[in-house]
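Following up on my earlier message about 4'-deoxy-4'-aminopyridoxal-5'-phosphate. Here are the inputs again, as you asked, copied directly from the submission form:
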Amino acid sequence: NRDAAAQQHLLDRRKRLLGPAYRVLYDTPFHPIRGEGVRLYDADGAEYLDVYNNVPSVGHCHPRVVEALSRQAATLNTHTRYLHETVLDYAERLLATFPDALSNVMFTCTGSEANDLAVRVARAVTGNQGFIVTANAYHGVTASVAEMSPSLGAAIRIGDHVRVVDSPDSYRLGTANVADAFTQSVQEAIDSLTRAGMKPAAILFDSVFAADGLFTDPPGFIDGAIAAVREAGGLYIADEVQAGLARPGAHMWGFERHGIVPDIATLGKPMGNGHPLAAMIARPDLLQDFGNKTRYFNTFGGNPVSAAVGLAVLDVIHDENLMGNALEVGGYLANGLRELMNRHEFIGDVRAAGLYAAVELVSDRATKTPAASLATRIVNALRDRRVLIGLCGAHGNCLKVRPPLPFTKTDADEFLGILEEVVGGLAT
Ligand code: PMP
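Thanks, got it. Here's what our run produced:
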């Protein structure tokens, strides 16, 4: 048919022009042309429920963000070496959401750059070379953080100065054992660095371990590992690119769940609601030392338009109580997913924190064997029913449920209803 032919044409064109390294989602690629709130629309006007996208954090094309962006773009945009109040207003407002100890911000355009900069700072201020990351981590596209991103699989060579520790898999380890297991893995990594004549510059992990499969419990389980790294002279870098900015519901930032303040936090995706805006937040003594040794210029990072956008996003989060919504609707959604687990053998575990949930599919609850192809079938079947989710976890067997923050209980009911039908259909 004509639609299929048109789609194939776009795919061919994409491959011819962009090369083979890119991947599209879903067996039938999705081609949205408009978005609003938690809904996306294709060229035929068909409506899709977005239960996946965290980048449009305050909702697709939020009018206040669009207005702020347009107004500043129509007034002035420059590189970042001139004076501008909006940038400082935004810095102040953003830093106010962090513990007092984290009182400096440096702006970038992407989470990758924020992590890359954090790596540079950690090296410069500790004088150490080693880094510790988790088994299925993703930290970005630059050469230095790609070699700290085991989730890239065979496509990447993990750096000789990088040690990879087991995911804090609460499902398989048992919640009560996560803290000890994680601490032990990290201690072994430190010992391995020592044997190679290195010390840790930092441990770097996603505050909710999203790519590893979303592991958030028990709160505080990172304590021993962080203490060990600090004892060995390294820093704690919290990657908040996915975890943070009101999504945790109970907190603004993912690390707050564990009650430990990082030395550096890196932010990205949701900050600009789609506009490329990211940042590194750090203790000022670290940046003093870094600044004494080197200088930093990022042409686009934290320009006036980005700052206006970032401010508007913070305003909307506040005015629409999106953090409270993440807590309430996230809890409601997680309960619904747990009820589904009670009815379906192949849902082995449901893990959630705020408006972020993972549903782990297994072929056998006793052995906890990952059921990746089943997970892929569910994601594609949902896409055919016009509901968008994704996958996470080392085996790609966890449904990743991560909607824009204005997701309502009605949206959750709609999602749960369709998921139940899809899952029920697969079981029979
Ligand atoms: N860290 C984490 C945890 C991420 O999920 C991502 C993006 N998927 C990045 C860093 C890199 O961010 P960006 O794509 O903006 O460079």
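One observation from looking it over: Residues 110-112, 115, 138-141, 206, 239, 241-242, 268-269, 278 surround 4'-deoxy-4'-aminopyridoxal-5'-phosphate (CB under 6 Å). Hope that helps, and feel free to reply on this thread.
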